[in-house]
Amino acid sequence: LLALATFLCFVASNAHEAYTALAGLETGITLLFLLLYLFRLDAKMRWLFWPLADIFNSVIAALFLLVVCLFAIIVKSNKGTLAGGVLGLILLVLCVVDTVLLCKKISLARPRRRNAPAR
């Protein structure tokens, strides 16, 4: 929801296209991961280690959000751009927290869980 609010702030304020594109892209990717986990598609598509893909997404999003939102706050062409930049920085913090929690949760050394009980 925070990514969507950031996107809407940038769209409403007619901010630079890069701000809007990044916020929209992050909103879309977050929605895709939400649907992936909601419909349990991660269990059906076992060829990719989804928590690692989620960590990779969070790290890349945090780096891009850091640059774009700092530019949006520094330039602050209007109040909508400033609000989008601040919301984007809050989203950046949530991406970092997500990365840390996922890194603590997964371990690459142990085997993955099975869907069916072992015999």
From TrEMBL:
Domain MARVEL: start-end pairs: 1-107
UniProt keyword annotation of Repeat present: no
Subcellular location: Membrane
InterPro entries assigned to the protein according to its UniProt record, in alphabetical order: Marvel, MARVEL-CKLF_proteins
Gene Ontology CC terms, in alphabetical order: membrane
Stretches that traverse the bilayer: 25-43, 55-75, 81-103
Membrane topology annotation: Multi-pass membrane protein
Keywords (A to Z) from UniProt: Membrane, Transmembrane, Transmembrane helix
PROSITE patterns given in the database record: MARVEL
Protein name: CKLF factor
Source organism of the structure: Cephalopterus ornatus (Amazonian umbrellabird)
